[in-house]
Q: What sequence folds into this?
């Protein structure tokens, strides 16, 4: 429900807003070295409702041991190897332990009510270096799922 100036807000509207389902995972440690094999770096399990649309966000910092590598960041349902919901190539111009930030968004329409696991993965696409997801307690990576279909 959109509210503009002068519109009343009813308790039932607030109850619907509070009922939005949400799942998230926080990664606080670097991944291992990743080469050409697609490797999961973050996962979460969300409770879904049949027909509802969910937004998935991944944010992380990616680095390589060799300059000018290209890594693929993907969001998948269920497991590595399933069809990607979205994919983004990340060019890594220099070696750095800080990493280069990436934000990736995807949408998923639930085909059944129940739990489903989503994951973010990395893979080196071009180059010879080791790709690493950089994360720490002071600079974590996130994978988040939120229902974006309004409740009726």
A:
């Amino acid at each position: 429900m959109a509210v503009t100036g002068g519109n009343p807000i009813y308790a039932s509207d607030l109850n619907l807003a509070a009922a939005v389902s949400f799942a998230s995972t926080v990664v606080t440690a670097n991944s291992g070295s990743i080469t050409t094999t697609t490797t999961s770096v973050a996962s979460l399990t969300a409770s879904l409702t049949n027909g509802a649309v969910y937004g998935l966000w991944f944010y992380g910092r990616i680095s390589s041991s060799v300059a000018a590598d290209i890594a693929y960041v993907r969001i998948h349902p269920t497991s590595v190897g399933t069809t990607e919901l979205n994919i983004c190539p990340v060019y890594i111009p220099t070696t750095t332990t800080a990493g280069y930030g990436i934000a990736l968004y995807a949408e998923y329409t639930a085909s059944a009510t129940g739990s489903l696991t989503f994951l973010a993965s990395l893979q080196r696409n071009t180059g010879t270096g080791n790709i690493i997801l950089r994360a720490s307690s002071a600079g974590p990576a996130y994978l988040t799922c939120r229902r974006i279909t309004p409740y009726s």
